[in-house]
Every structure is written in structure tokens, then in C-alpha cells.
Amino acid sequence: HRDLHSFPTRRSSDLHILKSTSFSAVATAHSRTDNAETIILNLTRGGGINALAGIPSVRPMGTKQIIRPLLQVDKTELLQYAKTCKLSWKEDATNRDRNIPRNRVRQAILPELEKLNPRYTAAIQRSTGIVREIIQYLRPDIDNAKKALVATRTISDSVSIAIQPLKGYFGFLQSIALHEILRETFPDVLFGAADIDRVIELT
Predict the structure, then answer these.
(1) What's phi and psi for 65, nearest 5 deg?
(2) Which of 130, 129, 137 minimizes the C-alpha distance to 72?
(3) How distant is the alpha carbon of residue 101 from its chain centre?
(4) What CA–CA distance (Å, rounded) separates 105 from 75?
(5) 71 φ, ψ to 5°?
(6) pLDDT single digits (tens) 119-165
(7) Average pLDDT in the 169-179 region?
(8) Nearest to 32 by CA among 134, 93, 123
């Protein structure tokens, strides 16, 4: 078994709002363009099948949730709507920093994709939808794997994972089950493919 409690924490303002208020949900303005950026970044990081599912429209956070109602809309459409309605918005100053990988994708790669296909965000969205359907089809197997892997779960935000049963599952099932267990136990930590690989290597 392995206790997982030392991974670096990365808290978001969304989670802070959920924890510090009585709100049952927080809505974000993530767009179809943000989803395309996420998929490209996940591909470069070698994420598993769940990484190719993109940004979920709803992410449960215990009894609360983060919802993203604008995922079917391009960022250009959102900006045009805001301008037409004379709405103001805040632009994060770090969005111009090309040392940040997501910004390099946004500024250098997405314009090239748009030349290949002006509706590339819709095309990527269709692909992520198919991946989500595959994950949903595999849901019974994923849930069975999670039950087999969780040895103990405490109320103090810690979990013990049984390593040996991992060997009985295909690699992609290992990855999905582990990622979901960690995300459910530590909702304010962003676990990447490298973190999942560290656990699998223990087998």
C-alpha cells in the first residue's frame, strides 16, 4: 500500500469559492477554444485516454460542482458577444507570457490549426465527445478497478491504494482508475500523467 499525501497542492479560485461559501456550484467561462488548448497540451504531456476527454462540462467537488456552460462556444464568439453588448472583462496579464506552455499553444499553434481548418475547435470537440463515450462505456470496469484499488480512505483527505491489484488491469484502466481516485480524494490538487506513472511504477 502507498499513502498519497505529499503531492504539491495547486488551489484554484473556483475551489476556494466553493469551500468558503454556501454556493452549490461555480460557473466558469471555459470555451471550446480552451478545450482545444487543453487537448494539445495533454497530447504533448503524454496523458492517457482520460486526458484526451478534454475539459468536462461538469466537475463534481464533493457535494458541490464546477460547471462550464460555454464549452460549446468559441472564444471568438464570446468576445464578439461581449463587444456587441458592451460588456467589459478582465484579461489576465500572464496570458501574454510565452514562457507559459498554454500561452505558446494559444499564440503559435492554434492560429496554424485555424489555417488548416477554420472550425478546428468543433472538430476537436467532436473527438473529445467520442472519447467521453468510450470512457462511459468502460464505466463499470473503471468502477470495479477503483473498488479493488482503494484499501482505505479516511476523512482526513488521505487514501491508501492497494498496488498489487493494479497488475490485473490493462494500462489505460489503471490510469483512469488511479486518476479518478486521486482527484476524488484530493480535489484541489492537479495530478498529471507523471504522478499517475509514479504510482504505477510501484508495481
Answers:
(1) -155, 155
(2) 129
(3) 16
(4) 15
(5) -65, -15
(6) 999 999 999 999 999 999 999 999 998 888 886 666 556 778 777 77
(7) 84
(8) 123
User: How far is Cα 53 from Cα 47, in angstroms, rounded to an integer?
Assistant: 10
Roughly how many angstroms between the first and final C-alpha of the chain, as a whole number? 10
Yes or no: say if 89 and 41 are a contact pair by the CB < 8 Å rule.
no
**Residue (of 76, 79, 72, 192) closest to 124 by Cα position:** 72
Determine the angle formed by the axes of helices 120-137 and 139-149, rounding to 10 degrees.
60
Dihedral over Cα of 201, 177, 163, 10: its sign: positive
Pick from 62, 49, 38, 31: nearest CA to 133? 49
Classify each residue of 2-40 as buried b or exposed e, where b means 16 or more C-beta atoms within 10 Å of its C-beta.
eebeeeeeeeeebbeebeeeeeeebebebbbbbbbbbbb
pTM of the complete model: 0.79
| Strand, helix or coil for residue 60 | strand
Strand ranges inside the chain, DSSP E: 2-3, 25-27, 58-61, 64-67, 150-154, 158-161
The answer to whether the CB of 23 falls within 8 A of the CB of 66 is: no
CB 138 within 8 A of CB 173: yes
Distance separating alpha carbons of residues 160 and 154, to the nearest angstrom? 9
Closest CA to 142 of 164, 173, 181, 175: 173
User: Amino acid identity of 32?
Assistant: R
Backbone angles phi, psi at 140, to 5 degrees: -60, -40
The whole-angstrom separation of Cα 36 and Cα 97 is 19
